[in-house]
Amino acid sequence: MDLFNQPLKHQPESMDLFSQPELAGTPLAEKLRPALPDDILGQSAAGHHLKRIRQGGHPSSLILWGPPGSGKTSYARALMAELSSGQNSTPNSTRTSKLNCQSRFGNATDLGAKDLREIGQKAQYDRKAYQIQTVLFVDEIHRLNKSQQDVLLPFLESGDLILIGATTENPSYELNRAVLSRCQLIVFERLTNETLKKLVSKAFAKLNLSAESVLTANAQSSLIDFADGDARKLLGFIENISSYWGSSKNTPENTPEALSELDIQKIVGALALGYDRDGDQHFDLLSALIKSVRGSDADAGLYYLARMLKGGEPPLIIARRLVVLASEDIGNADPRALSVAIAGAQAVELVGLPECSINLAQVITYMASAPKSNRSYLGLRKAEQLVEARGSLKVPLPLRSSKTQAMKGLGYGAGYIYPHDCPKGFSHQSYLPEELKGTEIYSPSERGFEKQISEFKKWIKS
């Protein structure tokens, strides 16, 4: 970790890490990385934060959260360069910060607890000895374990260190609450197609080309769709496209010809969707699937199913959640839904991908189209509340087991009426504990088969 133990120099020389001359083979994404915070595209939250800093606000620790290729690292680097110079990046501007800052950069995969402690201790010394504030950028901060995050806490608490962390994972799940409470959260959104369109023009201009000369209008739209909101992915595609266009189209024998949508599909290949089976994408899409089926929207249910399977979600996880939904949200309004869901889960185990996706589609469309009732689920919750509130109430003697003579001697089972011996197949005896006598726990709806259950209950009471 020599990067963090270099002798302190007067700023802005400490920003040499970010101001290296462009090297041969530098990726296009790095060549186009914005040098100024104002050049970050499509992120209004970052713009609001920058405005506050330039109006004299004290730089606070930040967590930048958003999908890959949305500009988190670019914003952090540009902001750190501006803070280190102490000047606004626009002409005729006022001072960005009253602090004299130096910048440090690292990736969470390369930082151990010892490294972080040394960085914090040096930042503490520099602040006391030279009145210089240290800004530390940690990329992929979610990869720091809880102990490593704890090392940063005293330095954040004392103000010796300003932390800027970037993550694609939900900070609420991945970061200590203590760390998160000391940082401002800035959410970076997936880049819109309009923003990516602007980036296409900038990228081809950097390559001394015109987007219109290389790509047809339909090809540009297809390219942007393939990028899926990721600027880095888009620029990687453009590098490959420009090489292909230059080698196969722009030859002495042929007039340069714009690439078609089909050409783009061949060059770029299959669309790889952003998906993390252990992160936000998993929880968000699974939630959207369940809520769509609960809301009787079969179209949305199929869409989210396709998204999850395309992203690599194990189909059995989806099938199991649908089994729960069958009882939680459909219940007795259509008792067959549970059988369909269980059959679907069995089919997933029996058939496997890709064919089991057809079975899941049948389950989803059936359940989305079925009448809905959560009354059995609500009944369970009400029963649980009664148990918690009233404790272990005595079971009525007629309902107790009377298998032994001793039990019979205590009156267990005495007075029990066997329903099948009654003319209508039921008896008017009370089954709840005495303290809960007459309490209604399950109240069926008037939808689907549950309407018949409701009528049966009314008939019983009458």
Polypeptide structure, described:
The protein has 462 residues and is of the alpha/beta class. It is flat and about 90 Å long. Helix 4 links the parallel strand 2 (100-107) and strand 3 (132-139). It has helices at residues 28-31, 44-54, 72-85, 113-130, 146-158, 171-174, 177-181, 193-206, 211-214, 217-227, 231-248, 261-268, 280-294, 298-311, 315-330, 336-351, 356-369, 375-390, 405-409, 450-461, and strands at residues 62-65, 100-107, 132-139, 161-167, 184-187. The protein folds into four domains: 2-187, P-loop containing nucleotide triphosphate hydrolases (Rossmann fold, 3-Layer(aba) Sandwich); 193-268, Helicase, Ruva Protein, domain 3 (Orthogonal Bundle), CATH 1.10.8; 280-369, Zinc Finger, Delta Prime, domain 3; 395-461, post-AAA+ oligomerization domain-like, CATH 1.10.3710. Helices cover 50% and strands 7% of the residues. Strands 2-3-4-1-5 form a five-stranded parallel sheet, with helices on both faces. Helix 4 packs parallel to helix 5.
- Strand % is 5-15%
Number of helices: 20
Give the number of DSSP strands: 5
Q: Please identify the structural class as seen in this structure.
A: alpha/beta
- Weakly predicted, low-confidence segments: 1-19, 87-98
Question: Which short descriptors sum up this protein?
Answer:
flat; 5 strands; alpha/beta; Helicase, Ruva Protein, domain 3; disordered N terminus; Rossmann fold; Zinc Finger, Delta Prime, domain 3
Quick overview:
The protein has helices at 28-31, 44-54, 72-85, 113-130, 146-158, 171-174, 177-181, 193-206, 211-214, 217-227, 231-248, 261-268, 280-294, 298-311, 315-330, 336-351, 356-369, 375-390, 405-409, 450-461; strands at residues 62-65, 100-107, 132-139, 161-167, 184-187.
